[in-house]
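Consider what follows.

. . .
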Amino acid sequence: MIGQALRAHVRTFAGDIVLLWVVVAAFAVSLSLATSIPPELAEAPANVRTALAAPFTAVLATYGAVLASVYGSFRYTLDRRDGVVAQRLMLQPRWVTLLVRAPASAVGGAVVALAALVGGHAVLTFAIGGIALDWTAVGSTLALGAIAGLWGMGLGIVVQVHLVALFAASMSMGAALLVAILWKVGAVYLPLLAMLEALRFDVTAVGILPGESLDGSTAVLVTAGWVTAALLAGGLSFMNRDVR
């Protein structure tokens, strides 16, 4: 039953308009990186360009994570609004429907993060001739997108309302950057910064100094706590609410 439900869900990726538009948005937003690149950086040696452009990796990961969370929430709220969820509940148990959405949200989130990464590297290639690709950072960016997609899915199931989900998902991630302006000690425990720290991104690029960040193990625990809480809240909501 689970395998059949997964195959059915995989087939929906071919016509996933939400994923298409969020991928386009992630690519477009990452192009704004061009405004932050000093023109003289293009004349620097390759190793200097790579070192100076390194902080942009965390910025691109942040763009991807915020939009991946939007995808995770929108994918559910749109399906609910259009009656897709209700139709599937006529064919399979609730727990199966919920279970197969999780990997789909994670994969979609990773694709969104990849689009942000591709857009950012396209800008760097055009502006300064490109930098060496750090495959560890690529893997971390995709993992961050997957985690953010799950976070967004949990929020979307709880919120249910389509446009409210857009605001809730983006603000739940972006709020950390706003809080960090006034209260860095507390901001590092919020979802976005905790996720970045858990995946070993350089958070100085988003305003957190080395002495203010969480250590790796604490960041992993905080991230796991946030994502688990979102999925549990979403799961309980889905299992007990009426779906029309």
